[in-house]
Input
Amino acid sequence: MHRLASPRCLCAALVATVCLALAACAVTPSESTRTAAGGAYPPTATVEILDAPPSRAYQEIGALDAPGEPGALRAQVLAQLTEKARALGADAVIVRDVSYRAPVTQRLNPTTGFYESVGGQMVPAFKGTAIKYR
Output
């Protein structure tokens, strides 16, 4: 006669399987940096922040993405973008604001027993083009 596994053992195996499955589905925030072909540049000391392409000649050296978290300060997210541009060796970064408002959801507050709105905060996010002056 075969002996069945104990309920405790089965429960532990099920929890481990679910944890592994969820870990495999985890998504990390996309913080991408795409560089143009043509070589690397040493990091620069300062990076100009531009809202439009400059009038002087330049070369695009990378596409940057700096997504923020709900409630984050715009200045912090912009600083992340300029740090990425500095590390690429950019003289300037042409910035495009792609901030958005997080969706509002309702949740039950277990302490009060009332529903409350959660979310609706601005999520600062920027995309940029790292450039090198010629």
